[in-house]
Structure prediction request, 327 residues.
Amino acid sequence: MPPFLDGLSIIAASAPRLDLDVSAAMWAGLGLLVIAMLAIDLVFFARGHAPPLRESIAWSVVWIVVAVAAGGALWAWQGGEAGTQYLAGYLLERSLSLDNIFVFAVILAYFAVPGERVQGKVLAWGIMLALFLRLIFIMLGAALLDTFHVTFYAFGALLLYTAWKLARHDDVEVDPEHNPLLKQLRKRVTITDEYDGDKLFTKVNGKRVATPLLAVFIVIASTDIIFAVDSIPAIFAVTQEPFIVFAANAFALIGLRALYFLLVGLMDRFVYLTQGLSVILAFIGVKMLLIDIWHVPIWLSLAVIAGTLALTAVLSLRAEPKAKTPA
Prediction:
């Protein structure tokens, strides 16, 4: 049997602790690698121009290859179980990141953010903020799981509730006007009606005021928190190793800008995306609730996630596109 398939056949004790030998230097190395990849994405992808389809596809493929290569390096360093957990976690977080893309698209459209250059900058800052928030939630989640076993059941129930919410709504519903942080911002800060390039603040009649771009960042920040609350409990059902959890999240989020410009024009074709994600989250939630009864194999988690995504894509492509709501 090939080593990869042999690794997938390992029966995991519902994301067992592997006790990886991860030093502070390894964490620093991962952090520097993530920063370097973000810098490369900012400097070389769609800098100063609207990215054509071919460029978006090429960069999306590049980041997927890099992510898989990182999994191969982890496999060689810590063994097949660690590599398999990373792969399952990456695939899970990558699928959930599709929801991030569509919500970002709704926010950018709502605020009429001008031009691909400004939109790209907003997305870049949104991704960096998402990584920072996920790191915080990962550390909190790991501490809770280590201290309170009941946290598994709390996470499982949260994921089942999230799956139920997704199954009830076909469309991503984002209404910035009801965002409490945005309401507080408007009470305290004067915001102009016009953008000034990619500036967060500008001067009007000699007075320093905020541009709508600041409001965009506030809304994206609050939605990033919501996504972190949903996605971090999900990946802890696949692996309890903070290093693997963060690595899977980082590689899933890097390259999201290229994926955004690739998919934003095809949003109406993903008819069954929310249903597919609800199935995945429901499976992960049940897996966490059954932790003391049945240890779900890692290969089964991979099969369910990959199979659900493939079926969702096939059914969506065969279905009629969503009718756009008239303005």
